[in-house]
Amino acid sequence: MGIFSIICLILILTIMMAFNPSNAKQTQPIISDILSVDLFINKIYQWGSEAQIILQETQLHMSGPMVLAGVLCFIASSISSAGGIGGGGLFIPILTIMAGLDLKTASSLSAFMVTGGSIANVMCNMCTTSPKFGGKSLIDYDIALLSEPCMLLGVSIGVICNLVFPEWLITILFAIFLTWSTSKTCYRGLQFWKNESEKKRKVGFEELENGTSEETKGLVQVKKENEGLKSLEEPLLGAEENSKVRVPWFKLGVLLLVWLSFFSIYLLRGNKYGQSIIPMEPCGVGYWILSSVQIPLAVVFTTWIVLRKERHQDQNFIPEGSCLSRNKPCNKHIFPLMALLAGMLGGVFGIGGGMLISPLLLQVGICPEVTAATCSFMVFFSSTMSALQYLLLGMEHIDTALILSMICFVASLVGLLVVQRAIQNYGRPSLIVFSVSIVMALSIVLMTSFGAIQIWRDYISGTYMGFKLPC
Fold first, then answer.
1. Sign of torsion over alpha carbons 311, 312, 318, 319
2. Highest taxon of the source (predicted)?
3. Tell me, what DSSP letter sits at residue 366?
4. What is the pLDDT of residue 216?
5. What's the CA gap between 110 and 85, in Å, rounded?
6. What is the pLDDT of residue 26?
7. Rounded to whole angstroms, how far apart are CA atoms 429 and 427?
8. Average pLDDT over residues 51-80
9. Which of 76, 83, 355, 429 is the most exposed place for a label (fewest CB within 10 A)?
């Protein structure tokens, strides 16, 4: 509670000074009253500075802070993979606070780490089927198709907002939205847990009722024998059907086409420093024209996908992974809107969209297993695009990025195996929802605390804390 009060006090002081910088001299008594907070912050920065010096001397090779950060990232990746989210909200604070990296380097390494974890998730989810959903894959490719164009558009819009908004506003928005989203996810997880407990209780009650008399015992025995014969036949038939994993190559091709279209725009446009494959004025007319092309591109892809689904099936769009408890089918237009919102917020906060779209899918009524698999599939496309952009823009420490991505790859496999085994043993898919809640809660604490410390240091140093131009 004390840490939360300190963070709130820092944010209030920062906002007051951002809107009224002329009163900086009048707040000197207040600053002196909370000198202990400044000393605490200086200790953290001293740790970060020492770690950064060590890393610069060793060129990001094996060092104490980097090994510690790698261990913590392994744990964070294993927890994040269970919920199908990237984990960038944990990787960036760990690399900046524990390893002493600057934000730019930490963001580039985080993109590779998220990519490594998402590759493990996609490999497992594409190669396995679920008897619960009729032997189909847990990945809902329809939701991914409807969401991906708008998510990529939202990321571009969010990145521009990130350049314009001051740090204190981004930190406050991050804390507010993720706190609301975490509370909703926890509530949804408790609902799933309650429903699972109710089903277990009904099954136990029915078994108890069936064994109360000698006559029912005989009927139950015959029923069990019939079910036993049926269970011997089902694995043979089911194995033959499930042994062949049906890969929707057409849908994967459309997703790849969407990815390549947006990536081509990024290559042609370059960044605000003029780094691109064609000569272009930084933030000039051509830069903004190419940036605006993403809007009709996302609209065209989404409209075409929606119209194609309407031609091939009924007007009511029912995702494969929708929960049976829902009374109404999901509206197909809600997924592009959710993806646009998640992409924008992810671009503003500098994290992947998986952490943001996963709670939204759970709120709509998509089952936890399908939500985790579909989110990890969508994160794969967004994270690979970010990683390739860092490479093309001359990223350093590529060897370290590959090592960390392999660590997250292994950690994701471990996390998936542990969670799947737990679901099989206890029959509670709600464990996936709780893993998402844990990652989001930790992200709130780490990202908000780190952002508050950065804001305080900017205020003390007299850095401009208002709105900025995108270029």
1. negative
2. Eukaryota
3. B
4. 47
5. 13
6. 43
7. 6
8. 71
9. 429
Q: In angstroms, rounded to a whole number, what is the distance separating the alpha carbons of residues 83 and 60? A: 30
Q: Is the pLDDT of residue 350 over 60?
A: yes
- What does the alpha-carbon distance between residue 278 and residue 330 come to, in Å, rounded to a whole number? 44
CA 357 to chain CA centroid, Å, is 7
| Crossing angle of helices 430-461 and 368-392, rounded to 10° | 40
Question: Beta partners for 322?
Answer: 366
Does residue 289 contact residue 280 with C-beta atoms inside 8 Å?
no
The neighbouring-strand residues paired with 260 are: none
Side chain identity at residue 443, one-letter code: S
Name the token pair of 86: 């990237």
Please report the pLDDT score of residue 214 as a whole number: 45
The pLDDT of residue 275: 67
- Is the pLDDT confidence value at 207 over 70? no
Residues in the chain: 471
Q: Nearest-CA neighbor of 302 among 153, 157, 140?
A: 153
* Backbone CA torsion sign across 388, 392, 394, 398: positive
Q: Which amino acid, one-letter code, is at 138?
A: L
* b (16+ CB within 10 A) / e for 386-408: bbbbbebeebebeebbebbbebb
Tokens 């963070």 correspond to 7
Query: What is the full DSSP assignment across 238-287?
Result: HHHHHTS----HHHHHHHHHHHHHHHHHHHHH--TT--SSS---TTSHHH
Type of residue numbered 208: L
Please tell me the distance from the alpha carbon of residue 123 to that of residue 413, in angstroms, as a whole number: 10
